[in-house]
Amino acid sequence: MDFQHRAGGKTGSGGVASSSESNRDRRERLRQLALETIDINKDPYFMKNHLGSYECKLCLTLHNNEGSYLAHTQGKKHQSNLARRAAKEAKDAPAQPAPEKVKVEVKKFVKIGRPGYKVTKQRDPEVGQQSLLFQIDYPEIAEGIGPRHRFMSAYEQRIEPPDRRWQYLLFAAEPYETIAFKVPSREIDKAETRFWTHWNRETKQFFLQFHFKMEKAMPPPPGQGAPVGVKRPPSLITGLGPRPLGDSMPPPPPGGIPGMPPLPPGAPVPHHMPPQMPPPGSLPPHLRPPLPSDGMPPNAGHP
Description:
Helices cover 15% and strands 20% of the residues. It has helices at 19-37, 66-73, 76-92; strands at residues 46-48, 54-56, 61-63, 116-123, 130-137, 148-153, 166-172, 179-184, 188-189, 195-200, 205-212. The chain is elongated, with a radius of gyration of 55 Å.
């Protein structure tokens, strides 16, 4: 037979699905999806009556099989009833009291005064790094309490006017009063061997030592002398050597210094005689200025 020109007779093709067929196919897809995601035995609204059919206690609907009920649970009617029931239960539920916060009991101690202390200034002999060693005595410290410490900026305290050059190191242990030490506001070296604490439970003594970081040496400002220990080179003057060391000048040559009158007999020789320059004519030509007798005109050096 020839099915080519008959409506719907082409092999592999079908007519347009009706609305009932589309709804049936949609419900089947929803049922398969519900079977994979929902456990029907845990549904509070699912009920099987004495006739063998299934009921939805929320929507008051009857269903012939489980698949029909599962398809119903995925529909718009059942979902809207679920939202309405949840809103009603939230409104009717009494207000739950807020959970109580855990209260921490504040320990109260009667202050007995300030502890004894000892501060030692130290300097590393190898690198010259400065440090401070604190020893605080707590002979009557409370049971189960350990000493505490912290650094405080000058702007946190209210006892003295703030000064950025200083900071404070605080020590606290009950029932003693908190004590503070005023130390320079320099950077603290936090290295393991440069900052350490120790609490001796037998002697009731607390030790803390910290080092200040090394500061770079600044060069001396211009106009100041060289630091101690720096040797200056001798003055370089052509033809004159360095001045000999000693408190007195060498004795004059026999016959006196040329150009100076001789001293009368018996006159004391001065200990510090100012050096006298010989006349220009007695100096060699390479150590004196040119003279007119050397054959040069007087104004040869002027333009």
